[in-house]
Amino acid sequence: MPGRHRAAGLVAEVANGAESHFPAPTLKMDDLDFSQSPPAPAPRPAAPAAAERSSAQAVAQSSLYDPTVALNFFKSAGTAEKKPAGKPIFVANEKSGGLFSKGDRMYLLIEGEVGLMINNKFFGIVRKGEIFGELAVIAGLPRSATALAKIDCIVLSLDEKQFHAALGKAPEFALMLMSIMVSRLRQSLARLGAAASAGGPADRSSVFDRKLLAELSKHLADRPPVAVPAGKVIVAAGTVGVSMYVVREGRVAISVNDQVVEHIPPGGAFGELALVDRSARAATAVAETDCQLLAIGRNDFLALVKAKPLFGASLLKSIAERMQALAAQVAKTQV
Questions:
Q1: In this model, does residue 146 exceed pLDDT 90?
Q2: Which domains does the chain have, with CATH numbers?
């Protein structure tokens, strides 16, 4: 697709001849541009344990990542900021809120280089054109790492309110971000499938509240809920995914290699991964009790993401929470 770049070539430059140090004191949104970006050298692959930890903060770029879409998204509602070398952008386990707090923010790195640290040790690098710190805004999750400006940096940042405002203007960004997060989630599911059981399965939270669930049902009025008896396989790992499902009633178990890793309650959703990246099912879903399921095909899924920003935001939050929960399970298998 024209304008789309490989993950390894994501570089952002300030238009009209950006320098390696800070530009003039006043940062203008119109001066920020990805179009003149030369390709950057491919980053070294992180060690497995470090890569798993970095997934909690940095978005792994993919072939579906479009830096121009990301830049326009952040420019539409974000704030340009300078971050001097040696200063943290955010700190692991820091608390948001408070009298003088601006709240959690997610970032797009425009200029510079950011290091991700755990226990004062670097485990990952954020380069120009990459997004980081998004899980705190999308799902309200605590920072699992510290982000430190290794050299003078320029970033565009969004708080939760700005993120939702930008999503209302460009809801397709949710699908792009989903595709990147899904690749991380699949990595965790694959690692769980290859590892011995460590602790019990996670209880996934509801994705859609009653109001949004009612809106979905109204939008899909011509497709009534599907009744599924207890014990029936709903989707099988390795098969082609044509629908995602929202649990109206009952409870669903998600398993990898016959090991239950998650439980889905009413209001929860599953099967969306295959709709996002068009890959085979990563897990098997079985009705633990008699269930009523709302099936959403890919065309309806894409239409909902574009027409209802809250639908995309809710799925992003769900995927982020699953990333954290499954990464914790993977970490237990490596102890």
A1: yes
A2: 7-168 (2.60.120.10), 183-333 (2.60.120.10)
